[in-house]
Fold:
Amino acid sequence: MLELCMRLVRADTEIRRKLEVQGLSLNDLTVLQSLCSAPGRRLRRVELAESMGITPSGIARLVAPLEKLGYLSRDSDPHDARISLVCVTDVGAALYQDAVTVAEEKATTLLGDVFDSAEQEQLIELLGRLAPSFARRPVSGEN
Structure:
């Protein structure tokens, strides 16, 4: 089983490296995707963190550079001024759309060379079961 986990980690590293597009990491694309698909193209930081399965401090580290580049902005919640919303700008949304096109082409080449379409569907289903399972099960020795 450890060998399987090690191979998954190596595959994840290679996929992330090969899917970098226009200076955006896969995590950056995920942030932009989450915001582009959200109502009003904005979310509270905690909602964004939950959608990505990371901590709020992790989101802060991801959002800051995208904000400096003008792809994201902050807005106050119209219902509670104490809450800050993360918003995708028009520039960020356009960059995301362009990057998705390129990333899709790269992913098709990357996976299409290894798996046929039936295997790709099976892999999607298997990986879809994997992440929620990990979230529910602490590993021995984990806090």
